[in-house]
Structure formats: C-alpha cells, structure tokens
C-alpha cells in the first residue's frame, strides 16, 4: 500500500537532512585529523570565533599559537584549553594535544609587527596554517569618519593581516607547503552604505589575498578566503536537561535557518576549508548572494536600491 504524498515528502526531507547531518559529522571528524601536529596560528584568538577555532584545532591535535592583544584573556583561553583536555592525552612519548603558545599581537601598533613575526616563527620554527581572523567594524556616514579612524581600520583589517602574512610566507616557501585562511566579510565583495571605511578595508584585504593566492601557488601554498555576512554575538542557550539523540538533526536544521553565522558554524567551516583546500567560501543567505550577482550583472539597479535604503535610514534618524 503506497503512502500518501503528504507523508512521503516530509519523510524524504527528514531522511535527506539526516544524511546531510551525518555527512557533515564525518567531514568534521576527518577535518580534525588533518590538522594533527600542524602548527596553527590564530589571530584574535580571544574573540568568539577565535575561541571556537582554538578549541576545535586543539582537540584535533594542532600545535596552536594563539594571538591576541590582551594577555589576561589569552591566559584564560590557555587555561580553558588545557583544563578541558583529557589528561590521558598528554603522553610525553606521543602527545595527542599540545599546550598552546601565546603571543601578543596588536595590529594597531604596526611598528611592533617585525618583532611579532619573529616571535610567532620562533615558537616552532615554521607555520603550517595561518588563520587571519581579526577585524574592526564601524558604522557611520562618510563625512563623519576622521582620517585617523580610517587609518586605524586599515591597520586592523588590512595592513595587520597582510604584514603578518608577508612575514610568515618565507617559512612556507622554504618548506613548499602551508595554508593561509583569511576570515573576511562579504563586504569585501559588496559595499553597503554607512560602512565606507570598513568595506574599503575588506575590499583591500580581499584583493591582497587574491593576488597572494596566485603568486604562491607554485610553492604549494594554499590561500583561502571565507566571506560571511556577520557573526552572531552569542550562541543560542542550551536546552535544560538531557536532550534525546533524535533532537540532533532538528537542532542542525534550526542552526542553518538562523540569520547570520554562529562562531561554532564558522569555526567548523574554517577547519573544513583547511581540509578541502577551498579557494573561496561565501557564507551568506540568499539575499546577499543575489546582491553579489546584481553587482556584476545589473549594477545600476543595485546602486539604486542601496541609495534608496540609505535615504530611508537618514529620514528615520531625523524623525527620531
């Protein structure tokens, strides 16, 4: 007896979602194994995304170099990683996890970058993976942004990441291997009103790493860029009490429907990008993706839409 379509269709959706969930779990496991014993540098490791990446790569057995501009926060993250690890994994003969090394990195102080690069390289003598994660945001009309603020944003979002990459590349070239991952914004490809300085810095760093990708390919070095809309400030609160295993698929589906990107989802994307050596990843919902196509195919239409949106925003502020 054939089942009615009203039953078959939801059943197929659940099965497909279950298969996709299992596939992602397998890929996640394989991605962790690929970073074992690799020297991984994470900038702005004390941010939400940086912390998620640190936990993920640490569990995978990477030799972490955690960078941040606050020593207290770096030490707190260090304690979390070492305390959460299984003590049985610390085997002096064949260690599975490694205590991370900490380096103060402040992209607002470009004069210190030469010493920073030396300190990072001296930790292990080489770098296998560089995850460039730091970012400074600003929302303001063009005329209200000072030249000093423009420069600060360019230091944080462009000159800092590019200078660090330049310093580490020679060690990768000498070993003819390495992977650099830029965690960028979709505004590196699509500028929106009231984000002029931020979008400009993201366009600049996107162009730099696109050029770098082509230049270092002959040395076996991979360069990846991950462009996302925005990172959710916090994860959704966990449900109280033990959750049945059947909720895993539903939770995964819900996570994909949330606007924006959670730090854990983005961290998983980063480790998968390292594993699969993807060149470019865009994490965005349909509307931003459509806007990217409009920018190339129908720019006048997109510009008109953005201008109308900017005008509405100004009117709303004047009425308040």
From TrEMBL:
InterPro entries assigned: NAD(P)-bd_dom_sf, Sc_DH/Rdtase_CS, SDR_fam, SDR_family_member_7C
Keywords: Membrane, NAD, NADP, Oxidoreductase, Signal, Transmembrane, Transmembrane helix
GO molecular function: oxidoreductase activity, acting on the CH-OH group of donors, NAD or NADP as acceptor
Pfam family of the protein (one): adh_short
Transmembrane parts of this sequence: 6-23
Highest taxon above the source species: Eukaryota
Cell inner membrane found in the keyword field: no
GO biological process: intracellular calcium ion homeostasis
SUPFAM superfamilies the UniProt entry points to: NAD(P)-binding Rossmann-fold domains
PROSITE patterns in the record: ADH_SHORT (PS00061)
Sequence similarity: Belongs to the short-chain dehydrogenases/reductases (SDR) family.
Name under which the protein is recorded: Dehydrogenase/reductase (SDR family) member 7Cb isoform X1
